[in-house]
Write a structure and sequence with these properties.
It contains eight helices and seven strands. A seven-stranded parallel beta sheet has the order 3-2-1-4-5-6-7, sandwiched between helices. The longest helix has 22 residues. It binds nicotinamide-adenine-dinucleotide and magnesium ion. InterPro entries: NAD(P)-bd_dom_sf, Sc_DH/Rdtase_CS, SDR_fam.
Length: 289
């Protein structure tokens, strides 16, 4: 349960992408005061892309409290958010590594796993969490190639590049956890490009699980519903933000802290030792099939 259990929507607000945590009203709950670890990831080394804020920050905090060292990918303009996440990881007694860089650039994306492995002494878990969307008011025919490029390169190309580059470091017991979305199952007309990348992520999750299973590497995805993160005020119109999450069966948006345990479960070599090729919904009750 979080501090915003009775919350219906949010104050109208807007930010420029990628959005920063401190400018949000209310500031999200990343589990800072609630997440309790129990050694499920003792000694593991994890890369979390987009680990500065939102779901990525909650995952980094949870992983650290479960005993993992964490490398964080993020955009250079998110330095203050990344440093705050790193502070929580270090407070949990674990190592935090900061790896700024724009992963729509192939060389930058491909370099991430190696940089993480160098600093952490290896790599066991890759969380492909970085993502971008931009809600459109106009019709689909007005979307530009630059806009499509940014969404597809961030959500899909970078995920493929980073996973490829991570494979030399991963072995028996390793895990890849991708961040999908309810948008893969119930696409919004304002998010045609974004929703299509999330459907593709589900598909490649199942397919990579098949290819990498014989090497003992598990591949899964989490499909969040509406979660209160900087992505929302940075990419949705203020009137959508006000009602954000109200259309779920649970009647509210989720907090990043409520998504992180799904990533811990799928990353944990003990809890999820026989779980691969699955997409786990954390949607406030919306169906993921
Ligand atoms: P967020 O803004 O906190 O996190 C997204 C992160 O992606 C950013 O912090 C940024 O570091 C990273 N990123 C974006 N473009 C990048 C680039 N070019 N190079 C490097 N890093 C880049 O928002 P969030 O909601 O926590 O998003 C995390 C993931 O969750 C995304 O994949 C998103 O699609 C997914 N998701 C979010 C929701 C939601 O309602 N918030 C729902 C379903 C899925
Ligand atoms: Mg951010």
């Amino acid at each position: 349960m979080t501090s915003s259990d009775d919350q219906q929507g949010f104050p109208a607000q807007q930010q420029e992408p990628p959005g920063l945590t401190g400018a949000m009203d209310p500031v999200p709950d990343h589990g800072e005061r609630s997440y309790r670890g129990s050694g499920r990831m003792d000694g593991l080394r994890a890369l979390v892309t987009g680990g500065d804020s939102g779901i990525g920050r909650a995952v980094a905090i949870a992983f650290a409290r479960e005993g993992a060292d964490v490398a964080l990918g993020y955009l250079p303009e998110e330095q203050e958010d990344a440093e705050e996440t790193a502070r929580w990881v270090r407070e949990a007694g674990r190592k935090a590594v900061l790896l700024p860089g724009d992963i729509t650039d192939e060389d930058t994306a491909r370099a991430l796993p190696g940089r993480a492995a160098d600093e952490l002494g290896g790599l066991d878990v890759v969380v492909n969490n970085a993502g971008f969307q931009m809600a459109r008011r106009e019709g689909f025919e007005d979307v530009t190639t630059d806009e499509i490029d940014r969404v597809l390169k961030t959500n899909l190309y970078a995920l493929l590049w980073i996973t490829q580059a991570a494979l030399p470091y991963l072995g028996e017991g390793s895990a890849v956890v991708n961040n999908s979305s309810i948008q893969a199952f119930q696409p919004s007309t304002s998010l045609v490009d974004y929703a299509s990348t999330k459907a593709a992520i589900n598909n490649l999750t199942v397919n990579l699980a098949a290819e990498l299973g014989p090497r003992g590497i598990r591949v899964n995805a989490v499909a969040p519903g509406p979660i209160w993160t900087p992505l929302q005020p940075a990419t949705q119109p203020p009137e959508k933000v006000e009602k954000f999450g109200a259309d779920t069966p649970l009647g509210r948006a989720g907090q990043p802290a409520e998504v992180a345990p799904a990533f811990v479960f799928l990353a944990s070599p003990s809890d999820a030792s026989y779980v691969s090729g699955t997409v786990l919904g954390v949607t406030g009750g919306k169906p993921v099939f």
